[in-house]
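Priority: medium. Attachment 1 of 2:
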């Protein structure tokens, strides 16, 4: 177990490296392969089309910060809770190093990125989970950032929009990680009881504890095309029940048909769709 001094030193190094020279510390690969059609694209080419494959329309992983920067009106973007990072509460071997590596890789302090600003002139509080940061697993810092976002939205009387992804509990935080399901659900409930509008926007893949908590509690649930949205993944279910699942099981189109999603909204349409929803509810 790390002593408090060593833990504090690691945290300071992490914050220092995040501040030093901006966001990207480790260079991202120059080419990205589309999981849909297996074509290779230059990162910059995909960046300009919000990481939607120009050939097959597959919605690739969208870095959380870029997503919110692009979504919010120019000049209104303000990052919220930027220095909140996970603590190695259990003294789990290698965990501080893993957090530090994930931060260097993504330029984020945690798997949840939060910002406030306006969308089409309507103010909102937004959060997005980035699966490049430890698979978007929900540890205490992710739970806290979601909770703080709901509380900020409540105190400012603004709508809350969360782009979900990832899903597993952060195993390095054990039971503290599982508790985040209850904590975030309670925060959304309080927000909802106060009359707040919560739009849950599902992106690929959203599973596990994130599905079983805040992602499923939206007043309105939107989903990106082809996004996996369920609790246990299809492979686990097939192995458990010994049966083949139907084509497209748990994908957003399937969930729309079964009433779990209200609308499928592509990335290109997301700003217009959110603007129109926010204008109806302001
Ligand atoms: Zn493709």
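Attachment 2 of 2:
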């Amino acid at each position: 177990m790390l002593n408090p001094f060593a833990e504090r030193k690691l945290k300071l190094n992490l914050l220092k490296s995040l501040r030093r020279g901006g966001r990207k510390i480790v260079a991202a690969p120059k080419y990205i392969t589309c999981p849909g059609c297996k074509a290779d694209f230059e990162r910059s080419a995909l960046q300009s089309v919000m990481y939607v494959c120009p050939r097959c329309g597959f919605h690739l992983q969208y870095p959380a910060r870029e997503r919110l920067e692009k979504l919010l009106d120019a000049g209104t973007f303000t990052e919220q809770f930027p220095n909140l990072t996970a603590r190695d509460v259990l003294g789990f071997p290698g965990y501080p190093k893993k957090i530090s590596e994930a931060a260097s890789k993504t330029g984020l302090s945690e798997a949840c990125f939060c910002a406030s600003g306006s969308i089409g002139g309507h103010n909102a509080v937004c959060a997005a989970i980035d699966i490049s940061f430890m698979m978007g697993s929900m540890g205490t810092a992710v739970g806290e950032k979601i909770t703080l976002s709901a509380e900020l939205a409540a105190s400012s009387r603004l709508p809350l929009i969360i782009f979900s992804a990832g899903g597993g509990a952060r195993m390095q935080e054990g039971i503290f990680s599982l508790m985040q399901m209850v904590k975030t659900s309670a925060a959304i409930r309080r927000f909802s009881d106060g009359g707040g509008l919560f739009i849950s926007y599902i992106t690929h893949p959203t599973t596990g504890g994130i599905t079983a908590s805040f992602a499923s509690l939206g007043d309105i649930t939107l989903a990106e095309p082809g996004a996996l949205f369920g609790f246990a993944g299809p492979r686990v279910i097939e192995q458990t029940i010994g049966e083949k699942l139907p084509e497209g099981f748990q994908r957003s189109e399937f969930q729309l048909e079964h009433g779990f999603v209200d609308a499928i909204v592509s990335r290109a349409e997301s700003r217009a769709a959110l603007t129109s929803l926010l204008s109806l509810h302001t």
